[in-house]
Design goal:
By secondary structure, this protein is α+β, with helices and mostly antiparallel strands. The chain is 21% helix and 26% strand. The strands form 4 sheets. Strands 1, 3, 6, 8, 9, 10, 12, 13, 15 and 17 form a 10-stranded antiparallel sheet that branches.
Length: 304
């Protein structure tokens, strides 16, 4: 169903967010002209690159210069020259043998490749993250309903930042069934840690998609937060998922499809951030630490 956003942002605040978005983008790209060039590259990312030799050179050599150490071609599910566009490359898969899924079902798995920004426990309906910025679970989920956030009180959370060289697919951290899926419109502020500011809480201001998973051992929420240049979040399990400006859209599949640990949930069109929140789990033990590089399928919490 489609509903109005939980809180309407006034025009003055919207302008301030937009100006901050432009300021951040100019800073990270090194000026206005380079910002325009980067924006053009994003717009043209779906255009096919006709030459296999040119694709290989762009995807291997240019990527390595822009984002050291570059892509790991051995992990990609196809040879680099087989990806016809930048978008195809961004949304590539990974060979299963490079992301083994552990047989032990007592662990909650990382939903994506990336670097752990923060890890902790939900207390009083809130979590703390980069630079001490506080977020309520209700605001992250997009409904503003404290009752709806209660199952996550005392649960564990992890925040994983994806860089442009990471696999941009997001996977299920547990066995269970897919419950409610929501798309929340929003801004495109940078999610990079150095750019986060308390006055612009990026995880609740930015566009995002929320996937609720229910299983016999509990539940979790996977919150995909879009970032600068990234507004295209898609899901093979929710083909209806698409951006609707200033409208929150939420649906519960009927019947809820079964998902397995490590199965493909959704895809970012470019790098961004995933917030994983588990239901109440007093015995949860973190298995990773802030600033640690993780891969999807890697155990991130032991639940019992």
């Amino acid at each position: 169903m489609s509903t109005s956003p939980p809180s309407l942002i006034g025009p003055g605040r919207r302008l301030a967010i937009w100006l901050e978005q432009v300021r951040q983008a100019r800073r990270i790209h090194g000026g206005f002209l380079r910002l325009c060039l980067a924006a053009a590259v994003v717009k043209l990312s779906r255009l096919p690159i006709p030459s296999r030799r040119l694709r290989l050179r762009l995807f291997r050599d240019l990527y390595a210069r822009m984002y050291p150490p570059g892509l790991n071609a051995e992990e990609a599910d196809r040879p680099l020259e087989d990806y016809r566009s930048m978008y195809d490359l961004f949304t590539r898969g990974v060979k299963p043998e490079h992301r083994p899924i552990p047989a032990d079902g007592r662990a909650l798995l990382s939903p994506c490749d990336g670097v752990v920004q923060d890890i902790g426990r939900v207390e009083r309906g809130r979590l703390l993250t980069v630079k001490g910025i506080e977020y309520s679970v209700a605001s992250l989920l997009g409904d503003g309903d404290d009752e709806d956030a209660k199952p996550y009180e005392g649960g564990a959370f992890a925040i994983v930042f994806l860089s442009p060289i990471d696999c941009h697919r997001v996977f299920s951290p547990m066995d269970g069934r897919l419950g409610r899926v929501a798309h929340i419109p929003g801004a495109r502020l940078l999610v990079h840690p150095p750019f986060q500011r308390p006055e612009f809480p990026v995880y609740t201001l930015n566009e995002r998609a929320v996937f609720r998973l229910e299983g016999g051992g509990g539940s979790c929420a996977v919150v995909m937060v879009a970032g600068w240049g990234v507004g295209n979040i898609t899901s093979p399990l929710a083909p209806w998922l698409r951006a609707r400006p200033r409208r929150v859209e939420s649906r519960t599949p009927d019947p809820p499809p079964a998902v397995r640990r490590g199965s493909w949930l959704a895809t970012f069109g470019l790098g961004s951030t995933v917030v994983l929140i588990s239901s109440s789990s007093p015995e949860a033990t973190p298995l990773v630490f802030p600033n640690e590089k993780v891969r999807y399928g890697q155990p991130i919490f032991r639940l019992a």
